[in-house]
Write a structure and sequence with these properties.
It is a single chain. It contains eleven helices and 19 strands. It is α+β, with helices and mostly antiparallel strands. The protein has three domains: 86-108 and 295-431, no CATH class; 114-199, Pdz3 Domain, CATH 2.30.42.10; 208-289, PDZ domain (Pdz3 Domain, Roll), CATH 2.30.42. Strand 7 (167-173) and strand 8 form a beta hairpin.
Amino acid sequence: MPQVLSFLQTILVMGIVLGFMILIHEFGHYAAAKFFKVRVEVFSIGFGKRLLGFRKGETDYRISALPLGGYVKMSGENPMDERTIAIAGPFMNILLAFDLWTGVFMVHFEYPAVFDGPAIIGWVLPNTPASTAGIQKGDQIVRVEDIENPTWEQVSYKEALSANQPLKVGIKRNGVVSEVSLVPKPAGRNQMGDVGWVPKEPSFTATLIEAGMPAEKAGLKAGDQILTINGQEIPATEVLLEMLSRTKDQPLEIVALRNGQKLTFTVQPRLAPSKPTGEMRYRIGLASAPTKVVHLPFTEAVRRSALECKKNSLLILELLQKMVQRKVSIRQVDGPIGIGSAVGTAAREKGWTPLLFVSAIISLNLGVFNLLPIPILDGGVILLLFIESLLQKDISLRIKERIYQAAFVFLVVFAVTVIYNDIIKQLPGTQ
């Protein structure tokens, strides 16, 4: 029953979020059309058959049967104004993302603590590209591709988008910098690149103790600093997972520090679904993910929001470029199921800011995707209008119809492929 309620909550929240994104997008077209005195015949959320709505003045405001977007139907446009009208929708989505991020940065922005400071390696997992290349604990990443002195956030993005592709990094050890080329392995349901290194954290502190799992039953609590497990230092959750893959159901002796006092616990691992993949693994229900929280003043929040928009836009374009070059898997693109999972997870977190942050990412993706020339969405319309302005004549209606038909087929095939991959990624044991 709790799983059913969680699923229904995810569907409801996703519907509200995506519906609002579409509403904002179409309002951009609508407002631009009104500004240029263009008659708007239909303002629709969704496509296909009209379900309900109302008419006011010259416009029919409606909700239609297929919830796959929306449209504004106009008549009598001035060709010189069409580009502005076409760009207004994506602009509103990008503006919404900017506003949401500004608000989050001002109110409550929580992020991994390792993102601050230099990218120092805390551990190297065995039998990984990093261990094969001789990278060691304590090494510092001073360059990744063209980024000098990167943060762990920048390293993780480059690593994720380089599955099965050479990744050039500069490694500093004892004051000496050496060049290393790594080939990250595709890992997880989204086939993100992984080289097998773990960021250095100040300490391995339990930030999450799952209810009903062995760690809780043994008496461990959130806030406990884990000193050793079976006599071994554990610098990060990934190292604990690697240990459990070897020790399986053997009891673990955990030494922890609580309020200045050393405590020893015996924990019996058990097979349980891992999160978020659902793969059955030996687990104890303990994780360490130290975070920091900031509340920025307005001007700093605006600057940070602009940088966030720029960073994520470039990441989207880099991902699409590598997909076209067949350097990354289409499994790295989330469809409705993946988006719904992200929205549902954010909605279940404490406070509103996680959901607003995810909504900003979705809105920015929608805005950038609509500006692309392929398929023929807003960006495609702008491109056709630009070509017509260069030719100083209209493209024939027959050619336009064929372009739109081909673009529609492309969009349907792409959507089906993404949804299919979404379904495949949800199957148990999918990696």
